[in-house]
Amino acid sequence: MRASRLFFPTHKEDPAEAEAISHKLMIRAGLVRQLAAGLYVYLPLGLRVIARVNAIIRDEMNAIGAQELSMPVLQPAEIWQQSGRYGEIGAEMFRLRDRGGRDMVLGMTHEEIVTWLAAREIRSYRDLPQIWYQIQTKLRDEARPKSGVLRTREFIMKDSYSFDADEESLEKSYRLHIQAYNRIFERAGLKFYMVESDPGMMGGAVAHEFMAPSSAGEDEVALCPSCGYAANVELARSEPARPQFPAPGIKEIATPGARTIEEVSKFLTLTPDLLVKSLLVMTKQGPVLAMVRGDQDLLEAKLARIVGSNRLADPGEVKEITGAEAGFTGPLGLDIRMIADESLRDGVFVIGANRNGFHIGGVVPGRDFQVEFADIRQVREGEKCSHCNASLKLERCIEIGNIFKLGTKYSGPMGASYLDEQGSERPVIMGSYGIGPARVAAAAVEQLADGKGIVWPPAIAPFTVHLVLVQPADGRQAEMAEKLYLELAALGVEALLDDRAVSPGVKFAEAELLGCPVRVTIGKRAVAGGQVEAGLRRGGEEYKFEAGVAAAKIIDLIKNKC
RNA sequence: CGGGGCGUGGCGCAGCUUGGUAGCGCGCUUGCUUUGGGAGCAAGAGGUCGCCGGUUCAAAUCCGGCCGUCCCGACCA
Nearest CA to A418 among A32, A149, A126, A16? Predict the structure, then answer.
């Protein structure tokens, strides 16, 4: 491709609306343009990157025996009613009517459609197992699109679905996906982890996410450097240090004006881990008292898994239910559901007295009041790993892929079943697996970019070689560059030839901004010395090659150093 | 959905407090010069100041409403 013909509008300055590095650079390098919140146009260079990511995905999906197909984005609402998700999912799903007044949706994912297909076409255990995939557009009316292409309302996803006769076979399909995903992300040049994740709305019991560490990510994962335990903080477990507890023995203590953990702890000269933080939350089944240690934070996602969706009670509700103002809430005397974090087990704590200006000390949860114990706290950096006792690290990550064991969540209600060897009808056991190609690209930008621009991993770079022809007007330079460009093409490497009549400074700066792995310079020095210069975008090493053998040498360089 | 910021030529911004005929840098066009690190000189083109309404002799500027977009939070198959 010649730069003189390539549409790649670049910007010198960061766009005002961008915060994330990938967002700034993908706009500056002319990869994407924003149409509206969460809607992006992919320009030629951006699309080339996505196409290369997709090619890797296809390659590795095909390698595990998956078969590509394509399913509609526009879907009848009826099918979502069958699975039950039409009612469960709220404003995040785009809903519309066709001209005949039929309710339709724009697909946010394709479990329903693929299960519909399986229900009709899979009949016998002989038809199993199957893995079907597509690379298709998804639409979600996101509450908050953000960070460029990292969270958008319309995006493409590689989604695959496995169909198996039993759990054991599902395990195989699941493992095959793990294998494929590891290869895909390695080939794409990313640093990533596979972590345990919350199955969430997908249903099913087991799920993992593939996470690319980056400060632009929206998720946080807990990692054990010693045993390899890795989990999304939404479900990560840990062993917090246990304080020295005082002797038990209930006694009321006046704590005038001390409401927050900090104030009470200061007033009583006790460390916060000797206090109980009692939070009144409102659920569909009524109020629930959630308790964590004073030094810890409640993780709402964990609580939600036990009590369903919930919100913090407002001050009026607290007063009505506990009889005291927020700040003095505690479990004693309340006749509502109570859930305490596991770290409150076997300890002696100070709790709120449900009486303004008072707390109660010497309380033993489970003995002095009835309570369910559960893990409802947020893991903190430095807490001990539950498996090996090493210190956990927390890291912010971009979710680039996920895998779920669905079981019969969809096949059951939608009637996807098969006849086994004994002739009895059984539901198909399913799995669902996603990858976001745009997130893979953006994560690569986030992880590798430097002050000058993007640094693409070779496998997903828009071009592997960026040929800078310094002075196109100089016939000898142009001839050398053309020759090398054609030689590279003959060897299977499509280069970007910068044949534009712009100043050298612009060419070099833009080459760095675009981030192709190898930059080859042909200017007056090349004409005078018969050598071309090749430089690596990553690391910056420079090489000189005799013009006659330059193409072969550049190929070697790509193979060995990229 | 709650909180906050921003909306002025293509891009990045100033001007708004204190109302009076819209400015800077980059980019773009033309010419000449230049040509290994975002060139120089000269001459140009390009703006309903997000939208609607109000106040005023007069509104980019003050007031009200709406819209868009970004950030934090909630949410997130």
Answer: A126
Q: Is the CB of A15 under 7 A from strand B?
A: yes
State phi, psi for A349 to the nearest 5 degrees. Answer: -130, 165
Q: What ipTM was predicted for this assembly? A: 0.95
Residue A189 has pLDDT above 70, yes or no: yes
Per-residue pLDDT reduced to its tens digit, A335-347: 999 999 999 998 9
Cα–Cα dist A281/A309, whole Å: 10
So what's the pLDDT on residue A259?
84
Structural domains present in chain A:
21-70+107-227+394-445 (3.30.930.10), 251-374 (3.90.960.10), 463-561 (3.40.50.800)
10 Å Cβ neighbour count for A318? 22
Tens digits of per-residue pLDDT, A529-561? Answer: 999 999 999 999 999 999 999 999 999 999 998
> Which of the 8 DSSP states describes residue A297?
-
Query: What share of chain A in percent tops pLDDT 90?
Result: 85
Residues 466-505 in A having a C-beta less than 7 A from any atom of strand B are 470-471, 473, 503-505
Dig out the tokens for A207 from the structure. Answer: 């799920």
* Contact between the CB of A332 and strand B at under 7 Å: no
Instruction: Please tell me the distance from the alpha carbon of residue A108 to that of residue A326, in angstroms, as a whole number.
Output: 40
Residue type, A102: R
Query: 10 Å Cβ neighbour count for A352?
Result: 28
Question: How many whole angstroms separate alpha carbon A334 and alpha carbon A324?
Answer: 12
**Strand B nucleotides with an atom less than 7 Å from a protein beta carbon:** 1-2, 5-6, 11-13, 25-27, 34-39, 68-77
